Amino acid sequence: MASPGQPSRRGGDGRLTHEIDPQDRGPQDACGVFGVWAPGEDVAKLAYYGIYALQHRGQESAGIAVSNGRQILVYKDMGLVSQVFDESTLSSLKGHLAIGHARYSTTGASTWHNAQPTFRPTAHGSIALGHNGNLTNTSDLAQMVADLPSDSGELDIHARALETSTNDTSLVTALLAHHPDKSLEDRAAELLPQVKGAFCFVWMDEGTLYAARDPQGIRPLVLGRLERGWVVASETAALDIVGASYIREIEPGEMIAVDEDGLRTRRFAEPEPKGCLFEFVYLARPDTRISNQRVHSVRVEIGRRLAKSFPADADLVIPVPESGTPAAIGYAEASGIPYGVGLVKNSYVGRTFIQPSQTIRQLGIRLKLNPLRDVIEGKRLVVVDDSIVRGNTQRALIRMLREAGAREVHVRISSPPVKWPCFYGIDFATRAELIANGLSTEEICASIDADSLAYISLEELVEATTVPSDNLCRACFDGVYPVPLPEPELLGKHLLEATSVIPDRALDVDGLAASLAGGGATDALDRP
Predict the structure, then answer these.
(1) Is 445 a catalytic residue?
(2) How many other CB atoms sit within 10 Å of the CB of residue 415?
(3) Nearest to 525 by CA among 477, 492, 497, 499
(4) How far apart are the first and last CA of the chain?
(5) How distant, in Å, are the alpha carbons of 202, 286, 504, 516 from that of 48?
(6) Which one of 88, 106, 170, 321 is separated from 188 by 20 to 30 angstroms, measured CA to CA?
């Protein structure tokens, strides 16, 4: 495992795009998980390319665990997938079974010790686990870990001096590791019904690949087939990149296992589908399929509906790249207004080792986007974007377009106003920071200095997905949370970091301190 004190080439620095301007933080993605069981294949490289395809879901850290049937090796570090791994690292990870993870933190700080996969060695064999989503009963799970027998069959590997890990994933790993009188598969079937919130787990022991999806199916998880094996991944795009054929979605409340005997499945809870609506708007890659719909096609349809509901007298439709592009294509198609590229995106701005100076920071959005003056000068523009969170980005963008000569700027948004935080794996701004929570559409329009502003309605957005409304989680738009939330003091990203007392038995190989409930975001729904 790569560790903080280990001399090696420099990895990533953990900074995200929004660190260019800490006051301009958009919705941060859920994590990406990938698993492969394929004897005879180079599974480490398959896992590498799998999480590379899922990089948009998490840019803070990356890790891969590989088993050769006798032992599991885990390598993880802070940074992008391409920064964490190189040819020599991957060539040292030999085996027939692997899982991979690209992380954006939603519980636990962005530190090496919270990078995934998490790992636990026990007397019965080791476990490595990756998680996409966010749990809502973290405090209950922490208590369950604290109540485990002090001798739970774990191996003493003298990792006590390491800084502690504080994420909900490590709690689940600790609870799965304690199965003295049953198989890991039976232990999982017993434990998973007690885990609440959004989760797509991909985990492994020395010989078997496992995957499970929460009963609501809030986050996506799909199954694919290789010529000589099986693949599970957060999105179908990751199947495509490794040459796996799409079989189906892992069902809500389903657990699968793959080993030398083939694939088997069991249901640990009755399905109550509530897929995340925001996956269609922003999170998923446009080339991914969700609920048998290509995400790109859904976003184009959203643009068409925007044009019909909120026309504008304009000369050109331009997207805010890349997430606004499909909806802008649909808007142009339905309105008859020409589509054009008016903004150029720097594809490599996502991370930097250099902390921007105040002068550079004041350039703000120009580090990410730059206008094409020849295209937009003198034009009345329709600018299509996926969402407005704080409004800082749109305000700076409109100012930049006007400075470049735009006559009018009409903003169209391909999602309804975001008014509520997410507790299921998207790290939105807090409620007090969400501009739509305190201002009307007209007031937001004035605030960002647009000539007009319109959002797609929730009803139109749902219709564009073709998924029944009752089968979607719409909480960030309507405040209706499909999985009950605990008391406010038991919510919050840093819940497990609010305690200073950490029992030894709660620690794992990463120095895991997962066992303690503590103070948290007592005002998570409304704090600034």
Answers:
(1) no
(2) 23
(3) 492
(4) 38
(5) 15, 21, 33, 33
(6) 106
Chain-centroid distance of CA 503 in Å reads 30
- Collect contacts of 177-185 with beta carbons under 8 A, ≥24 apart: 177/120, 177/122, 177/127, 177/152, 177/153, 177/508, 178/122, 178/148, 178/149, 178/152, 178/153, 178/154, 179/124, 180/124, 180/152, 180/153, 184/124, 184/125, 184/127, 184/208, 184/210, 185/210, 185/255, 185/257
Q: What is the rounded distance in angstroms from the CA atom of residue 218 to the CA atom of residue 280?
A: 12
φ, ψ for residue 225, nearest 5 deg: -120, 130
The dihedral through the CA atoms of 182, 222, 71, 84 has a sign that is: negative
Question: Of 31, 200, 445, 473, which is the active-site residue?
Answer: 31
Residue in this structure with the two tokens 């299921």, named with its chain if needed: 424
Q: Judge residue 475's burial from the number of C-beta atoms within 10 Å of its C-beta, 0-12 exposed, 13-18 middle, 19 or more buried.
A: buried
Segment 87-115, tens digit of pLDDT: 999 999 999 999 999 976 544 444 556 67
* Gap between the Cα atoms of 103 and 33, Å rounded: 9
Q: What is the pLDDT of residue 373?
A: 96
Q: What is the mean pLDDT of the chain?
A: 83
Q: How far apart are CA 365 and CA 521, in angstroms?
A: 31
